[in-house]
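Good morning N.,

You mentioned wanting to compare the apo and holo forms, so I went ahead and generated the holo version with adenosine-5'-diphosphate. This is what I fed in:
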Amino acid sequence: MRAPLLALTGLEVAFAGAGGAPVAAVRGVDLALAPGEVLALIGESGSGKSTILLAIAGLLGPGTRVAGSLRLAGIAGDLLAPGAGRRGIAGRRLGMVFQNPAASLNPVLAAGAQVAEVLRVHRGLGRARAAAAAEALLARVGIGDARARAAAFPHQLSGGLMQRVAIAAALAGGPDIVLADEPTTALDATVQAGVVDLLLDLVDRDGLALALVTHDLALAGSVADRVAVLYAGRVVETAPARALATRPAHPYAVALARAAAPAATRGPFAELPPAGPVPAVGCPFAPRCALAVARCRAELPVLAPFGAGAVACFRPGEAR
Ligand SMILES: Nc1ncnc2c1ncn2[C@@H]1O[C@H](COP(=O)(O)OP(=O)(O)O)[C@@H](O)[C@H]1O
Ligand SMILES: [Mg+2]
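and this is what came out, ligand included:
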């Protein structure tokens, strides 16, 4: 791999729980992104995907405990260190795209003005130049008749167009990394592919790195270079996308693949028992795993090289 643009090491995130006790949401996650690389993060709801992106973007709330290290190429120091003064850096280098564009856009700002505001803050452009550059960015993200659309308010735009405006706003700081959290989940099926194609075009043409959170395994397999599978706040498998699609090695990754496959070809792993509490000791997936043995309940498996990737499992490659 080329020198990473982004290197996240040992990320731990804990939210304040009901009684004030911290509740771990992310436990020891390492991720790296190279220029022009697409990394897909997959895993069921609650596995920590959004929390990881928010931690990278520096958008977690003040009561949240965050530990680990985040380095961006060209920036000295660790962005997760206390007092790293990362706000401006994160805003310029990292563009964030959320699931619901209606919630991520300012409802009282016209489309062009949302984008222009970012250009003024992060690039120091004056009003007129920012407005012109915003229009160009709206055209760049595939919005036809950008001049007219720049004057439209979010509620006057379709979901697909709103998401394109949100992507333009995310690009306005001139990022080299885009973090997209289920960017098509809230959109009509007919416009989802267009938004995915736009993100991939940004990767191809502008050399951006993309971290894409998705629960769509087929999408991950078709667009990503690498996939990281999350379970209960940990990466349990990471591999080149093709390897993961054809030969998932962790029983949980096998279960995800089986659940996404046509019914006739589903094996025994398609029907996972429902998730219960994550055990304090041993493999977090053991309670739901048909292959679990005594060691799985006693010892935590850590990521270790397996095949073309790495797997945190004592019986990698055995589930079918
Ligand atoms: N602001 C928050 N306060 C408390 N707990 C949270 C908060 N955000 C997320 N969590 C918890 O952290 C875990 C990971 O959540 P999240 O990152 O949203 O998962 P995903 O995006 O994979 O669905 C979940 O158990 C969730 O309930
Ligand atoms: Mg999420």
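The chain has a mean pLDDT of 92.

Happy to go through it together on a call whenever suits you.

Best,
F.
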